[in-house]
Amino acid sequence: MTDASELPEDTAYESNNLEFMTEEPIDPQRLVVISNRLPVALKKVEGRWKLTPGSGGLVSAMAPVLRDRGGTWIGWTGTSGDVDKSLITDFSRNAGYDLRPVPLEEEEVRGFYQGFSNEIIWPLFHGFQSRCNFEPNYWHDYLTVNRKFAEQAQAVSGPGDYIWVHDYHLMHVAWWLRQMGCRRNLGFFLHIPFPPVDIFVTLPWRAKIIQALLEFDLVGFHTYRDRRNFIQCVNLFNPGAKTRGRGPVVTLTVGERTTRVGFFPIGIDYKAFSDTARKKSVVEEAHEFQRALRKRTIILGVDRLDYSKGIPERFEAIRETLKRYPELIGKISLVQVVVPSREEVGEYKALKDEIERLVGEINGEFTRPGYIPIHYQYRSLGREELIAYYRAASMALVTPLRDGMNLVAKEYCACNPSGVLFLSEFAGAAAQLQNGALLVNPYDVVGVAKAIHRAYHMEKAERSQRMRKMRETVRKYHIFWWVDSFLRAGFGRTLDDFPQEMTGVHFASEMGEPHE
Ligand code: ADQ
To answer: Which positions of the chain have pLDDT values less than 50?
Structure first.
């Protein structure tokens, strides 16, 4: 067992004793969002800077909130060195909120982003310890860059503002802000899983990370399981810690300091996805795909290039399906779209090679005249094209080895009223969608093959009924619900102010008790 005496001396800090439970409710003047990347990317094309607006879930959720309430988004532009600031000023003027870029040197990008964030925290928090490169120098860059973000936040925010920090790149921002004497209300949301204690304790900087997270006033996770893991880690390093409350938000008291800890499963803009899926042009494009694949049953996989997404294991499951059920050769095709990601990291390049080798091998084994079992594309799709794929596919294989939530599963449900969703037990989304999805263990290729066979023969009525339940959940717990419930928990005065609705979560899949 590890106890608090193990804490390195330099992690000791003065508690600011932020007893907001006894303060008046905060009506924030403005929202300050901090994420690693700004909601725009800057790139030099033929010697000139070009700005491209981001389109991810976080951008579509936060942009309207910032525009309506007034606010600021702090983040890195994705490039090092000097950038053309006028592009950012113009964007801010049109968007209705401020963008504040945090400039990073090339060395910092290497140590903070590629190193600490993506070679340590990403693999460790997804349970891939053996992929971690615990390079001691990365920690220094992580702290330095987190401090830069904190300085920017301190400079641009006022006393009544709410500062909402996103994700694993920035777990130390509140710690720095408190060091600077900042007493603002600070929230943090982790978009990836929080690992179980026995994995987390292998992190050389474990106690510092826990202490840093406790400097936020609210810490949010996607699932009950992530929150439970976090609380267990806090207890390990702080044996006197006390948890109070029930439901999605509880309080955790360590010494003088109280932090709210909650789970808020992120959603999607359901209406935007389902409306687009019904657009004439999208419906036509979906038919075009189906015709191109000669009306075979399309099984869709859509993922960023990442080892956590279980792409090679999925291919092995397809191989197993075609071996075990040869009558399906010529009847089902996997369409796998992989979005280029983190190609500068060696592990990702190796994964791409592995994926391409497997596609060649499986297609070599099962291709017949006029039939290819795996259609592989390595590119990013436009929004409407992606939605047309969702619509065209009778089934979606969403089989990450571990995933914080997984938005592809939810997007597929919003776009395809009669589709079958195979969903990994290890995706955060399983807690909400197990009422309709066929849950699978992505490591069990025989189990996945049996599920595909079962789905192929599933009655239409059962498919629709399963999908109806999932669509209802995705529709209800949409992205704006997510923003709203996090902010309500952030501003609430007492535990009674928190939303007590159970977030569409079914606890059986959370592998634990529903209450602390
Ligand atoms: P990601 O790991 O990026 O997010 P995910 O939740 O699946 O994973 O989101 C991927 C997004 O990229 C989806 O919105 C999808 O539409 C888009 N996308 C995927 N393939 C695409 C393609 N080929 N072309 C264009 N767009 C594509 C992290 C965590 C997740 C968590 C989210 C949000 O790892 O677990 O769900 O943050 O919190």
So the answer is: 1-26, 495, 498-500, 508-509, 511-516
Closest CA to 441 of 314, 286, 319, 303: 314
> Is the shortest distance between the CB of 404 and ligand 1 below 6 Å?
yes
| Catalytic residue flag (residue 98) | no
Q: How far apart are CA 257 and CA 18, in angstroms?
A: 7
Number of neighbouring beta carbons within 10 Å of residue 383: 12
Q: Whose CA is nearest to atom 37 of ligand 1?
A: 191
H or E stretch at 204: none
Indicate which atom in ligand 1 lies nearest the CA of residue 429.
Answer: 36
**Residues 123 and 147 sit within 8 Å (Cβ to Cβ):** no
Q: Assess contact for 438 and 454: CB atoms under 8 A.
A: yes
The one-letter amino acid at 271:
K
Among protein residues, the one whose CA lies closest to atom 33 of ligand 1: 191
Residue 83: partners with Cβ closer than 8 Å, 6 or more residues away:
42, 49, 77, 101, 103
Q: What is the residue type of 452?
A: I
Q: What is the model's pLDDT at position 195? A: 98
Predicted pLDDT at 131: 95
Q: Are the beta carbons of 263 and 503 closer than 8 angstroms?
A: yes
Pairing of strands 71-76, 98-101: parallel
The pLDDT score that the predictor gives to residue 4 is 31
User: Which pLDDT does position 295 carry in this prediction?
Assistant: 83
Query: Distance, CA 100 to ligand 1 centroid (Å)?
Result: 24
What is residue 507's predicted lDDT score, i.e. its pLDDT? 52
- For residue 267, give both structure tokens: 């959603």
Q: Which are the contacts of 209, defined by CB distance < 8 A and separation ≥ 6?
A: 171, 172, 203
Concatenated DSSP letters of 10-58 = GG--------GGGSPPP--S-EEEEEEE-SEEEEEETTEEEEEE--SHH
Testing ligand 1's pocket by substitution, the residue of 304, 383, 390, 416 carrying the most ligand atoms inside 8 A of its CB is: 304
CB 214 within 8 A of CB 259: yes
Q: Which of 169, 191, 222, 478 is catalytic?
A: 191
Convert 223-235 to b/e letters by CB count within 10 Å (16 or more is b): bbbbbbbbbebbb
357, two tokens: 């080798």
Active site residue 403: yes
Please give the structure tokens belonging to residue 455: 């789905």
Identify residue 516 by its one-letter amino acid code: E
Distance CA 485, CA 495 (A): 13
Whether residue 405 has its Cβ less than 6 Å from ligand 1: yes
Distance of CA 101 to the CA centre of its chain: 22
Q: Is 340 helix (H, G, I), strand (E, B) or coil?
A: coil
Q: Which residues pair with 298 in a beta bridge?
A: 333
**Could you read off the pLDDT of 300-323 as tens digits, one per residue?**
999 999 999 999 999 999 999 999
Residue 10 tokens, joined: 């330099």
Helix (H) or strand (E) holding 319: helix 311-324
